[in-house]
Amino acid sequence: MNANQSSTLILLQETCIDASGSLVVYAPVDILAMHVVMNGGDSGYVAILPSEFAIVPDGQGSHGSSPHDSNGGRNVSGSLVSGSLLTVVFQILVNNLPMAKLTVESAETVNNLISCTVQKIKAALRCES
């Protein structure tokens, strides 16, 4: 590997897309740990912590307006407005010591991970805001 390559693989565990929404479940796994397992090593030492994101329609555009919406669920041009609810779930092993306290650096890392993930999902879906 060179310095420009990631040291993490993404294992896609589940995907589902239907009228009720979309779900993607995945787990980041260290490449070196995966090579050890693929060469007969003990898989018990590989942390596989599933994460996910789900996108479900908010139902505002197709099922009437929100009680807080003075435009009857329509935008300025009169078109029905609909949106989605994005739920992002991460399982992250920050420290394997049971009594360890969360550090400011760990909290900033998690915050950056969430922000970056949401921005990438929005970009992939070509969302405006």
What does this structure look like?
- By secondary structure, the protein is α+β, with helices and mostly antiparallel strands.
- It has one domain (8-62, 80-124).
- 22% of the residues lie in helices and 26% in strands.
- It contains two helices and four strands, in the order ββαββα.
- The chain has helices at residues 31-38, 104-124, and strands at 8-18, 21-30, 51-57, 84-89.
- Strand 1 (8-18) and strand 2 form a beta hairpin.
- The two termini are 36 Å apart.
- The relative contact order is 0.12.
- This is HD-Zip IV C-terminal domain-containing protein.
- Residues 4-127 form the HD-Zip IV C-terminal domain.
What's the topology here?
Layout: E1 8-18, E2 21-30, H1 31-38, E3 51-57, E4 84-89, H2 104-124
Antiparallel strand pairs: 1-2, 2-3, 3-4
Distance between the termini: 36 Å
Order of helices and strands: EEHEEH
Q: How many separate helices?
A: 2
Question: How many discrete structural domains?
Answer: 1
What is the C-alpha radius of gyration, as a whole number of Å? Answer: 20 Å
Structural class designation: alpha+beta
Total beta strand runs: 4
Proportion of residues in β-strands: 25-35%
As residue ranges, the low-confidence spans are 62-69
Q: What's the arrangement of strands in the largest beta sheet? A: 1-2-3-4
Largest sheet descriptor: 4 strands, antiparallel
Overall geometric form? globular
What proportion of the residues is helical, as a percent range? 10-25%
Indicate the mean pLDDT: 79
